[in-house]
């Protein structure tokens, strides 16, 4: 839920530029710049750049999907480094980066904003999930099967197929790590706000980073939390 850094689509493009294979790199950048479905009409929904990554859990705020995508990709690259250095296994970084950048791309098409900070399923989202949408679109755009597999299996045991390559496993672990860290910090911040300010909040305004709420409590207790955030909540 960290909002101190304003994430933009260009930050994802910069990561995509690390893909060595030019054809794959161009396909990934085109999808990020033009996230459309070639086999279904795009619904009235949020946009990719404004969408949350979930309705009520991790990164459930405006542009949370961009933040989650960027962070997941960075974690996945770091894991690839570790796997190669510690375990001596060569990792296809092109697949890792491409799949990480695209794994949740069409979540935005499954959400609609009812009012600021509150999201529901779009009409399309009531009929089909984001994992099916992105997998279908990757097939339609003729992405390599290794990328499609990594994306299709990134939910692990809850996916249509479990991860069966090192690259797919890296994405699954990176996705879980970023989502769980963000989720845990959000709920910790809510508890701190309840304890220190007597407020039971469901969402936080853009000006209030859950990470900074937790840090404020660590540095100065409830007094510091009240000093920094009482006027913003």
From TrEMBL:
Where in this chain does the entry annotate a coiled-coil region?
none
Which InterPro entries does the record cross-reference, listed alphabetically? HD/PDEase_dom (IPR003607), HD_domain (IPR006674), HDIG_dom (IPR006675), YhaM_exoribonuc/phosphodiest (IPR050798)
- Entry's Gene Ontology BP terms: rRNA 3'-end processing
Which residues belong to any copy of the HD domain? 65-180
Name any one GO molecular function: hydrolase activity
Keywords of this entry: Hydrolase
Superkingdom classification of source: Archaea
Which PANTHER family does the entry link to? 3'-5' EXORIBONUCLEASE YHAM (PTHR37294)
- What's this protein's name? HD domain-containing protein
Please give the organism: Methanosuratincola subterraneus
Phylogenetic classification of the source organism: Archaea, Thermoproteota, Methanosuratincolia, Candidatus Methanomethylicales, Candidatus Methanomethylicaceae
């Amino acid at each position: 839920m960290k909002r101190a850094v304003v994430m933009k689509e260009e930050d994802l493009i910069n990561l995509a530029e690390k893909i060595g294979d030019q054809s794959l790199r161009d396909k990934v950048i085109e999808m990020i710049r033009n996230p459309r479905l070639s086999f279904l009409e795009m619904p009235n929904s949020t946009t990719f750049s404004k969408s949350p990554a979930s309705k009520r859990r991790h990164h459930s705020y405006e542009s949370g999907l961009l933040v989650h995508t960027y962070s997941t990709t960075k974690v996945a690259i770091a894991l690839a480094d570790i796997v190669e250095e510690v375990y001596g296994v060569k990792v296809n970084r092109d697949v890792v980066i491409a799949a990480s950048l695209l794994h949740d791309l069409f979540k935005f098409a499954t959400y609609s904003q009812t009012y600021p900070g509150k999201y529901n399923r779009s009409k399309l989202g009531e009929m089909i999930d984001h994992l099916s949408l992105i997998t279908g679109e990757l097939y339609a755009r003729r992405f390599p099967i290794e990328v499609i597999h990594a994306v299709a299996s990134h939910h692990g045991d809850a996916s249509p197929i479990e991860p069966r390559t090192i690259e797919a496993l890296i994405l699954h672990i990176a996705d879980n790590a970023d989502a769980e860290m963000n989720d845990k910090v959000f709920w910790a911040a809510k508890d701190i706000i309840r304890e220190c300010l007597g407020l039971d909040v469901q969402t936080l305004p853009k000006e209030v980073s859950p990470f900074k709420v937790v840090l404020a409590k660590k540095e100065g207790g409830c007094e510091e939390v009240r000093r920094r955030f009482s006027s913003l909540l």
